[in-house]
Design brief:
33% of the residues lie in helices and 19% in strands. With 376 residues, the chain is of the alpha+beta class. It folds into 2 domains: 143 residues, 3-Layer(aba) Sandwich (Creatine Amidinohydrolase, Chain A, domain 1), CATH 3.40.350; 213 residues, Creatine Amidinohydrolase. Strands 4-3-2-1-5-6 form a 6-stranded mixed beta sheet, with helices on both faces. α1 packs across α6 and α7 packs across α8.
Length: 376
């Protein structure tokens, strides 16, 4: 599934999403990258190009499934090696890009042209408006997001491998923990092992938090040292063929108190409660509330302070979610994180996070690291 006509299949999937959303279908969709960090990941969804940055790159999705990719000479070879079924354009002279784009659109440059507005900079929108002065630009982002939320076989394979790598690293974390090691040192070792095992870089800045710092869900690893009788929380992921994994494991360094064990047990039971209702047809709100009710029935009521999970794919937040306000309906092919937590400021925190694939009958784990309470 990774080659052949993958780009064409994905383009057709995007246009089919307009009908599913009951939105008017544009004549074509133009995705345009800026410069780092303003790169539209949907460009890589549509083209399935596995390597390269493609600053200033552009692709055109047509209703019939054809995809045209515009590349600079700099990344021409990366585009050619992809072999996913698109037509490659490499404008080499000033003005060629605009002329080629108008030729590719073949008389449709005066009609409705879709753009991915959340990822298009104002500067690049002005470029498109200059290239296509008579076009009516419409927002295609909802259809693009809808298509990306339901993963195809190639996407699931990439995410599964990213999860395998992160799970292997997660299982090795206890051997890294010793008195006096810093949060930053463990984060660096996690990143190193992920890449050593085949990852292509972190999905996001690795969270490594000791003691009271673990009560901050989006903590940045610093020089704090590991001391006895403290929680040690690690939230990280790696990318494989551009696709992300995202896993959290919490350990205890030294002898835990009964309260520490209760914290972990409550979070584990909350995650299981979510798994018990996670299946096609369930809403993100229903799954979140299943976990929330478990925590709120304990002494840790009100200490679960974020949504239960989010979609995962090319981006670590890839559309859809599990939260108290989510109306996302679970469908086969979605990949979601499930990550309940309990956070006590000044004391510590526990979070357990796994990545799962929604299947026709329920879900399947993609992360496989041990989830039992581990003391070091």
């Amino acid at each position: 599934m990774a080659g052949g006509n993958l780009a064409r299949r994905r383009a057709k999937k995007v246009f089919a999403a307009f009908k599913a959303l009951d939105e008017d279908v544009p004549e074509a969709i133009v995705l345009r990258n800026g410069v780092e960090p303003h790169i539209d990941l949907s460009f890589f969804y549509a083209t399935a190009i596995p390597s390269g940055i493609f600053e200033g790159g552009m692709c055109v999705l047509h209703r019939d499934g054809h995809v045209d990719v515009f590349s600079s000479v700099l990344e021409e070879e990366s585009a050619r090696r992809a072999r996913t079924g698109f037509r490659l354009r490499v404008p080499k002279r000033r003005g060629d890009e605009a002329k080629t784009l108008r030729r590719v659109l073949d008389g449709r440059a005066k009609k409705a042209i879709g753009v991915n507005s959340p990822e298009l900079t104002y500067r690049d929108f002005r470029v498109l408006r200059k290239y296509l002065p008579k076009a009516k630009f419409v927002d295609a982002s909802r259809a693009i997001l809808r298509a990306r939320m339901i993963k195809d076989e190639a996407e699931v394979d990439a995410i599964r491998e990213a999860c395998r790598i992160a799970s292997k690293t997660a299982n090795e974390i206890p051997e890294l923990l010793r008195a006096g090691i810093t949060e930053a040192e463990v984060a660096a070792e996690i990143n190193y092992r992920n890449q050593k095992y085949g990852g292509q870089g972190p999905s996001f800045d690795t969270i490594s938090a000791f003691g009271a710092n673990a009560a901050e869900p989006h903590y940045t690893a610093l020089a704090s040292k590991l001391r006895p009788r403290k929680f040690a929380l690690f939230d990280f992921g790696t990318r494989y063929k551009r696709y992300c994994s995202d896993i959290t494991r919490t350990f205890f360094f030294g002898r835990p108190t009964p309260k520490d064990r209760r914290m972990y047990d409550v979070v584990a039971r909350a995650q299981q409660a979510a798994f018990d209702v996670l299946k096609p047809g369930a809403t993100g709100k229903e799954v979140h509330l299943a976990a929330d009710r478990v925590i709120n029935a304990t002494e840790f009521k009100g200490k679960f302070i974020h949504g239960l999970g989010h979609g995962l794919g090319l981006a670590v937040h890839d559309g859809g979610g599990l939260s108290g306000g989510s109306d996302t309906v679970m469908e086969p092919g979605m990949v979601m994180t499930v990550e309940p937590g309990v956070y006590l400021p000044g004391y510590g925190g526990v979070r357990i996070e796994d990545d799962v694939l929604i299947t026709p009958r329920g879900f399947r784990f993609l992360t496989t690291a041990r989830r039992e309470f581990e003391t070091v």
